[in-house]
Write a structure and sequence with these properties.
Number of helices: 12
Largest sheet: 4 strands, antiparallel
CATH topology of the largest domain: Immunoglobulin-like
CATH superfamily of the largest domain: Immunoglobulins
Structural class: alpha+beta
Shape: globular
Number of strands: 15
Number of domains: 2
Strand content: 25-35%
Order of helices and strands: HHHHHHHHEEHEEHHEEHEEEEEEEEE
Helix content: 25-40%
CATH architecture of the largest domain: Sandwich
């Protein structure tokens, strides 16, 4: 049973998408996108049985996978709430790729993204996974457009990152029976991984609070994936609250993207006006947004968040830090 809060959030998300004119783009993308996986002969029951056979011999990997979001990809309450509103084959093709997208079986639903979703077999031995398997469900375009609905692989390529998806999201495990990669597949719900993405520095530059994000472990934009994910900087200057959002804002006419490292660079600067305030505090949050509440995108219903940084800056005065000259060309914040 889907919790009422999650179901309500998904319904509101769909209404918001429709209200700002995204629904045609998003739903058409869902309906027209090629499926990343075609179930093998024998149907989803046979593939689910094959998945169990893998786990019977690879016990450590199997235990890790069973607790992962890959294993829960179809059963997770957030996905189930969204699927109830938008029951599209496109969604099933990635969240239960061992099943027929138009008629998912209980076996395939339970497996989610399993062993044979990613591994193929040659002479009885599973091949190592190619990044193409990751890209199949983590990058795809709006229909009839060069704009990407999700573009994690493109972001990584523009940053010239050598590390693979697997090297970052499936950490090596050296204990146990043998060395292997961790099949829990760490991502946006792992606070440690999220915090390792960037270093964050906050300082005062005259009448401005300046927050500098420098690439650390992130191999793509931060955040990546769903268009509603974002970073939020909350500033309180002598009791006055100011919110700066770093994220994607997509419309039919185009988009703006203020996420750190979205342009492939290793540094992103955000600013908030604080004037001559004596007391300035700040907080930087990573948020998985279910849906924005208003077109400005500042107020939103959030599925989960990670605190990245917080602090208090010294009073305005001659010791306030300054930015490099090239960063001071425009005193306005990148968005309002």
């Amino acid at each position: 049973m889907v919790p009422p809060r999650v179901a309500r959030s998904s319904e509101l998300r769909l209404r918001f998408v429709a209200s700002v004119g995204w629904v045609g783009l998003v739903l058409a993308a869902c309906l027209e996108r090629p499926l990343p996986h075609v179930p093998e002969a024998g149907g989803s029951r046979a593939v689910a049985s094959e998945n169990a056979r893998c786990v019977s011999c690879h016990a450590e990997e199997g235990r890790e996978w069973a607790s992962s979001n890959h294993a829960l990809s179809f059963r997770h309450e957030t996905f189930q709430a969204a699927l109830a509103i938008e029951p599209l084959p496109f969604c099933v093709s990635c969240h239960a790729p061992l099943s027929r997208p138009t008629a998912p079986s209980r076996e395939a639903e339970h497996v989610g993204v399993g062993c044979v979703s990613c591994h193929t077999f040659t002479a009885g031995k599973a091949d190592r996974v190619s990044e193409a398997k990751c890209v199949a469900c983590h990058e795809f375009p709006f229909p009839g457009s060069s704009r990407l609905l999700q573009r994690t692989a493109t972001e990584r390529a523009s940053a010239n990152i050598r590390a693979s998806c697997i090297e970052c999201h499936m950490r090596p495990v050296f204990g146990g029976a043998r060395r292997h990669t961790d099949h829990r597949v760490f991502a946006s719900r792992d606070a440690e991984l999220v915090r390792s993405a960037a270093s964050i520095e906050a300082r005062r530059d005259g009448e401005w609070l300046v927050v500098v994000f420098r690439r650390a472990a992130a191999g793509h934009a931060f955040p990546t994936g769903d268009v509603f994910r974002r970073l939020k900087v909350v500033v309180v200057a002598d009791g006055a609250r100011r919110v700066v959002v770093l994220g994607r804002h997509v419309t039919r006419d185009g988009e703006t993207d203020t996420r750190p490292f979205a342009d492939g660079s290793g540094e992103t600067v955000a600013r908030a006006f604080v004037g001559s305030a004596e007391r300035v505090t700040y907080e930087v949050l990573y948020e998985r947004v279910v849906h924005p509440v208003d077109p400005s995108g500042i107020e939103a219903v959030v599925d989960g968040k990670v605190e990245l940084a917080r602090g208090e800056l010294p009073p305005f005065g001659p010791r306030s830090s300054t930015l490099r000259k090239e960063e001071r060309r425009d005193n306005r914040p990148p968005f309002d």
